[in-house]
Amino acid sequence: MSDNANETSSSLVDNVYLDSSDLIVARYDKWILAVTFFENFFARYDSILSNTAKDYSKLVKHFSTDTLPQFEVSPSSNNAGAVYGSVNSEADPNRKITGVNSFIELLKFRSSEDQGKLAGLETSIKEQILPEFKKFSSDLSTKKKDLAVEAGKHRKELKKLGLHLSSSISKLQHSIQVFESASGTGKMDYKNDPYMLKRSVSLHGTELIAKEHNHIDFLKREELSLMTQEKRSLEFIQLIFADVANRIAAADAIFPSSFDSLTKTLSSIDLEYEWKQFSEVNKQKLVSVEDNEDVSAANASADQKKRSLNDLSFPNDHHPATEPILEGVLQRKEGKVNKKYVSSYYVITKTRYLYEFESNSPKNSTQPNTVLYLPECSLKSLNGPDNSKFKIEVSGKDATQAISVIKSTLILKTSTYDEMKTWFNVLSEVSGLMQTQEESRLDTST
User: What is the average pLDDT across 260-275?
Assistant: First the structure.
């Protein structure tokens, strides 16, 4: 880097951009593992219910007629003619218990009812709860996969742009060495002009930074999406526990209070607790989280990490060979007949080239429209006697044309006489015409 480089600016090439995509992917893996854990828990719990329902079914089978005592009923009783425990008798849970028969019949009814509730609960968990876990886990896996694929594309593009930038900087370094060894007097290919190569560095730097900004925005969206997804995941598990607790309570099955207590405890967990812990531990690796809890603050945090080309430097950024002698917007006449003038950006470099660009932006004008090597050009002023036209004519071979027999002629117009005079004098000096005209004048005087 040259001695007069901005020592306070950051390096364009040494930046290690933040990439939290692997961290986010690993975080998705943890939530997928958590969802799978709870799915397996309820699958095992469902297995317990299934086994319990089978045991209840065995219990109910013991209430067959030939295994129950059949105590006689008094003829004067309201239950005359009915023997509890018979196959044809129908249980009435509201009937007054008057003896062993009625109690056994009620016990049979309650046992059968409990067996049906357990079987229904087991079926509902298997057919409704477990599929929800599978779907939620599948959605998380899809999000993780999409993120990983997109992050891979971003990394690949950033690496490619970084290589282009490094190559441009190396070419600029080489051209500076050639320029300095020739003391700026020899003719260089315009494509190796330090000024042109610096424009190339600026172009690739702009493209790289734009991609970095896009990558930061991508990471910001994914981190905020993960924050929302974490809330949804915990809320999903909470709702599942509440749902199962309600089903157990409705089924009046075993240990409903246990599930009720678990549900209340689980519901007390802050939806953002895990995210806060995660962001606190990894705040140096995330682009959108630095003690920020709201989306607007997260956006501001991410935007602060974006780089600007104006604040960065690179090797030979300020080398004299890359700085133009003169540059600015001039008007050029279109064609020989057409009187219309169009504005373009013109640059005279230390290597004595005159460049014509559509604009000063390397991004919008990557290559020059016209390149003239001034020592091989003719030059004349088209200014009127009253200094009113402000025109200059430059003729020479256009270096952008591989085969050029006819010379290119540029008729350039400035806004003021002083501006025209400045451009004409610099063009004359760089092309060597000033010295030639002076020698001619001296020869004539002698």
Answer: 80
223 φ, ψ (degrees, to nearest 5) = -65, -45
Contact in structure between 381 and 419 (CB atoms under 8 Å): no
Question: Which tokens sit at 31?
Answer: 């939530």
Q: What type of residue sits at position 275?
A: W
Q: Indicate if the pLDDT at residue 387 is higher than 70.
A: no
Token reading at 30 = 């943890």
pLDDT at 9: 60
C-beta separation of 392 from 381 below 8 A: yes
Query: Residue 410 phi/psi, 5° resolution?
Result: -110, 120
| Span 139-173, pLDDT tens digits | 999 999 999 999 999 999 999 999 999 999 999 99
Q: What's the alpha-carbon Rg for the chain, to the nearest Å?
A: 43
293 neighbors 272 (Cβ within 8 angstroms): yes
> Domains (ranges, CATH) in the chain?
15-304 (1.20.1270), 324-445 (2.30.29.30)
Q: Is the pLDDT of residue 366 over 90?
A: no
Q: Which residues, 6 or more positions from 217, have their beta carbon under 8 angstroms from its beta carbon?
A: 302
